[in-house]
Design goal:
Layout (H helix, E strand, L loop, with lengths): L5 E6 L25 E5 L5 E6 L5 E2 L5 E3 L13
């Protein structure tokens, strides 16, 4: 996983840099269209994937889930 991921408010329909076909988030089950998928960037500002508008989960090309988000937009760290 990349060291740093920066979320943006740029919708995927304005900057189509990622291949995505899902219509529902795998984590929060909210409906997603291309305006509700926001482009995310890596540490050198290269588009990496997109995040769900609702729960902030992060996906790569072809809807590969790499980071589970939550609705409070708080990153959770620690052991379970």
């Amino acid at each position: 996983m990349p060291k740093k991921i920066s979320r943006s408010d740029i919708p995927l329909d304005s900057m189509p840099v990622v291949i995505s076909t899902i219509r529902k988030c795998k984590v929060c089950k909210s409906a997603l269209n291309r305006r509700e998928k926001y482009v995310v960037f890596n540490e050198v500002n290269v588009p990496l994937g997109y995040s769900c508008k609702h729960c902030y989960s992060i996906y790569l090309d072809n809807d590969v889930l790499i980071m589970i988000g939550n609705e409070d937009n708080v990153d959770v760290f620690g052991e379970t």
